[in-house]
């Protein structure tokens, strides 16, 4: 069997096994994401796996660069990758995605035991920054219109909520007759 035939067979198997499973996502026929743990689980992580052309004879590319994994420290990511690499080495030459995903699920606690959430730079530094914008928002509050005012506004506008063209134009002839035109002198 060629590598492409092996990949096609494994792809079919993965699709049938993980059909309807929200943890498994097929990005392309050779690229997958697998979430280990529940969304609410603080120790959950996402594996990004890509098959090279010669997979399963060569190891798949595994990374933890998904945005979901930003709270995981670099050391923990490195530990997970090294443990997964050991599993890849043991299964080289055969279909291994199911084995890898299930192994990661079973060993999630061990893989994430040293996990300490990383504090990102998005956190606010003081409470004064939080209160100032909210006070500004309160001042920007729109004035309340009565039902009659809303009705008049709707009657003046078209179906898109726009006023008709020239609604505020001055009648040019009436204006010129009052102000006079150019001096003929």
UniProtKB/TrEMBL annotation:
Residues 131-159 are annotated as: Disordered. Residues 9-111 form the RWD domain. InterPro entries: RWD_dom, RWDD4, UBQ-conjugating_enzyme/RWD. Signal peptide: none annotated. SMART domains: RWD. It comes from the Eukaryota. Pfam families: RWD. PANTHER family: RWD DOMAIN-CONTAINING PROTEIN 4. This is RWD domain-containing protein 4. It comes from Fundulus heteroclitus. The lineage of its organism: Eukaryota, Metazoa, Chordata, Craniata, Vertebrata.
